[in-house]
Every structure is written in structure tokens, then in C-alpha cells.
Amino acid sequence: MNYIVSRYKSKCAETGKQIKKGDNCLYDPSLKKVYHMDSQVAKEWKEEQQEGHRQAGMMAQANEEAFFDNFCQTNNI
């Protein structure tokens, strides 16, 4: 799923809402369908993106803590 700015006037594959040229929308290249940002597909995609960012933040924090622990052990702190 790709977040894009519509280059053409189109219609949401789920809701049937009008997507104007220049509107933000989601494009599924495998199905060749576009979804309005108010659609359920878009809401689920947003939640997945937020979860991915949250997990990346947690991973970065864990890496930072492991680096610090290793630094302390190496330097007898």
C-alpha cells in the first residue's frame, strides 16, 4: 500500500467517495485500487504505520540501553 497524492480524479474502491486530483489517498499497486483517506482500509493502514513507528522507537531505545550497558562493562563503570 502506498500513500500518494492523486494525479487524477478517481473513486474510492471501498466507499465510492470521490477522490479529487491533488487529494491524499492510498494506492494498492497489486490490486490497482485507490482508497479515500476516510475508508476503513486507510484507517487500518494508519494504525499499522503508527504501530510500526512505536515498535521502531522501542527497538531504538533497547539498542541504546544495550550499547550503554556494554560501554559500562567495558570501561568498568
Order the strands across the largest sheet as they lie in space.
1-4-5
| Alpha-beta classification | alpha+beta
What is the share of helical residues? 40-55%
Shape: rod-shaped
Explain how this protein is built:
With 77 residues, the protein is α+β, with helices and mostly antiparallel strands. Helix content is 45%, strand content 22%. The chain is built from one helix and five strands, in the order βββββα. It has one helix at residues 40-74, and strands spanning 2-5, 10-11, 18-19, 24-28, 33-36. The relative contact order is 0.14.
Short précis:
The chain is an alpha+beta fold and 77 residues long. The chain has one helix and five strands; from the N terminus they run E-E-E-E-E-H. It has one domain.
Task: Considering the chains and any ligands shown, give keywords for the structure.
77 residues; alpha+beta
Reconstruct the topology from this structure.
Blueprint: E1 2-5, E2 10-11, E3 18-19, E4 24-28, E5 33-36, H1 40-74
Antiparallel strand pairs: 1-4, 2-3, 4-5
